[in-house]
């Protein structure tokens, strides 16, 4: 944990997806201060989406992390992920929303046990 879930209307080839996920995982580990072995990245592509009433490349990112991140880390993580989305998926930063969530440890489980 954390989990970064990306939803986009873009169609992305496998090599681009793999490169993005590896870089996003490294960035998430660095900025959350958690070992990369706990980072999960998922991408859902080719989803029907519009933003501002207009079609075009767009992405929504949901970051779930046990424990609230410092404001400075949130800002760096948001900037880094937006940059990766722009470079890999050709989505303008103006068309990316990133939502941060901080669930209680009892709301997440791994290997059959909650993190509580």
Task: Output the keywords.
116 residues; alpha/beta; four-stranded mixed β-sheet; two-stranded antiparallel sheet
What would your notes on this structure say?
The strands form two sheets. The protein has a four-stranded mixed β-sheet with strand order 2-1-3-4, with helices on one face. A two-stranded antiparallel ribbon has the order 5-6. With 116 residues, the chain is α/β, with parallel strands linked by helices. Strand 3, helix 2 (71-89) and strand 4 (96-101) form a beta-alpha-beta unit. 22% of the residues are buried. The two termini are 12 Å apart. The longest helix is centred in the first third of the chain and has 19 residues, at 14-32. The protein has two helices and six strands; from the N terminus they run βαββαβββ.
Q: What's the total number of strands?
A: 6
Nearest-integer average pLDDT: 93
Between the first and last Cα atoms, what is the distance in angstroms?
Answer: 12 Å
- Total helices: the number is 2
Q: What level of helicity do the residues show?
A: 25-40%
Rg of Cα set: 14 Å
What class do helices, strands and sheet pairing give? alpha/beta
Q: Are there runs of 5+ residues with pLDDT below 50, and where?
A: none
In short:
The protein is an alpha/beta fold and 116 residues long. Helices cover 33% and strands 23% of the residues. It contains two helices and six strands.
